[in-house]
Amino acid sequence: MIYVKDNLFALHTETVSYVFRATDSLHLEHLHFGRKITVDDRSIPALMEKQEFLTGGLNSYDEEHRSLSLENYMLEMSSYGKGDIREPFVEIIYEDGSSTSDFLYDGYKVMHEKPEYETLPGSYSDYGRSEQLVIYLRERYSGIVIELHYYVYERCDVICRSAKLRNESIQTVNLKRLMSAQVDFDDSDFIFTHFNGAWIREMNRVDNAVTAGRIVNSSYTGTSSSRANPFVMLSRRGTSQNFGECYGFNLIYSGNHYEAVDVGSFSKLRFVNGINPQGFSYVVGPEEYFEAPESVMSFSKEGFNGLSRNMHEFVREHIIRGTWKYKERPVLLNSWEAAYFDINEEKLFSLAEAGAEVGIELFVMDDGWFGERNDDTSSLGDWEVNEKKLPGGIKGIADKIKQLGLKFGIWVEPEMVNVKSRLYESHPEWVIEIPDRNHSEGRNQRILDMGNKDVQNYVIETMDRLFSSADISYVKWDMNRTFTDYYSKNLPPERQGEMAHRYVVGLYRCIKTLTGRFPDILFEGCASGGNRFDLGILCYFPQIWASDNTDAMCRAEIQEGYSYGYPMLALGAHVSSCPNHQTLRSTPLETRFNIAAFALCGYECNLCEMSENELDAIREQIELYKEWRSVLQFGDFYRHDGTGAGNVSWTCVGKDKKYAAGLLFQGLAQPNMPDKRFVACGLRPDAKYHFYNRKFKVMEEFVSMRVDTENEDYHVYGDVLMNCGVRLSQGFAASGYNERVRVFPDFASRIYFMEEE
User: Fold this and answer.
1) Which whole number is the average pLDDT over 293-302?
2) pTM exceeds cut of 0.90
3) Annotation marks residue 548 as catalytic
């Protein structure tokens, strides 16, 4: 709901309020973001900043407002100059070389439909109506206009912001920065949480106590990046999974991003997020405009799980769209770790045949099927089938797979090119590289300039031909290197700062066009794993490969990191072989499945080389996952407090709360620690549940023979499960073993089921 009275603006969701006003000086004063409050024009003076005299060291805004200092004021947006020395929202270089801007309130509009952006993806509403507030700010001397857009999603307690700069002046300006959101807080007693890492170790949670100065989370890789995901949080000290106040922010953007907290001289905290200003500039001429990506903001007083539920619901309902929005995702088998580049029709068919026998639904042919692609040094860009490997072409292998009762999928990397390719020989001008200079190489490939319309058209038409050539049900869209030498041969020198953003806009045009032409294909985004895991990609691809690391212990931590801001419905996860190909660690097959089952479960191993016992176990796993995947894929996800380093415990609860699944995973076992309990979340307190564990054979490597797991079987109320938990069977502690002892060594795990009676 949007409430407007005179110069007061209040945005309300079911439990959250966001309030600001236009002041007498025509600035926008931020008043409140947090728990829902009741406001009107009479109560606003209680929330307003009080400034009668300037304190020492401050500068007044102008002669007419001598007591107003913007440095010590909570603002909705800020710029360089006029006294505010904190992180700016906008930075513009004018034709005379000056950089001071003075944007003042110039009106508003309330709208009930959200138009699409011209250049970027954004949130949407299936309900036909979406409340939107637009605030207009006009620069006092140049006439340039900034529109601040606010979108309210009441049911998921999310408010989105974006900005658009329109040049209504007669001069050309150089835009150096335009953030998407700015939120000022009147104190700084927060923990700033961001998620950092690298290839195969994505989404490590990092907590920084905010005291003074500036903390930045950002990417300059050309992608949203595995180094620093755009989802961040601010929380009050002591916030836990289920208690405490916290804020979440994300960006609907797939390129260089920037999130910063800045604590000023008066302990006020400013948060901004948007396109990374490093290396960015954009020339905006008269009558031209620039759109900033959309920022997603949420608040919860129910801890990190409450915040995550808001974000998950928002992504499911207002980001993911199309055929696969509410459709259960299939169990797939990917050929990569089974064969790498060494594929042929016979080998692929045998692998698919083994998959069909254990219940696989979709077979994916990964890299190695095109050109002279026997390693990663050649053929990217030449998207024509290698008929020595696939004599019947794509259609031939797809038809054979389909005869097994499986759907067929394929891997592509359309944004890349090898120097050793016909495409590079024909169009060297299409590649991002600085002429006559050595180029930094990544994975033996270079990046096509997706800001170039000719490149976009080539990608669209080439992929259109490929996806039309056979009955293709799934596409894995990969991108395996980051940007190094930023340069577009398609742009003049003064516009090179636009290259990175134009790339992202061009990519969006390509994938929007292709997903529109092939609405029934399930697209999965990938960029060396989680190098481009963001809401921008999820606007087009309903799922993303979370990490190239398939080690179960690593995946437990990686998937938990993603879960703070993204629903499990968006995470691709595979069961692979051991020793693991990334860590050389061996973990139980059941644990590999248990971790993958709490995301979008697939397999990436050579089933043709597995034992009958392993194949029987996989058959049982897939049967179980199909039975429970509606809960695991679409249910509400909860993390549990107090699990300890290397351990995780989760609950996933169906929307009707009748069914739930829980996971308990242990990293390294502690000797003589036999006691564990499982505590659930999200159940109905007054409902009675049947609690039981998944039964399977404990494999020979842990005991002298294969035996059944312990039996947990209880009938208890939801409040018992959530407030007390279940005391599990005694764990093995080196002093005896029978069928009632829980064998729980290193990397062991259990899935527990809860069904309402």
Assistant:
1) 98
2) yes
3) yes
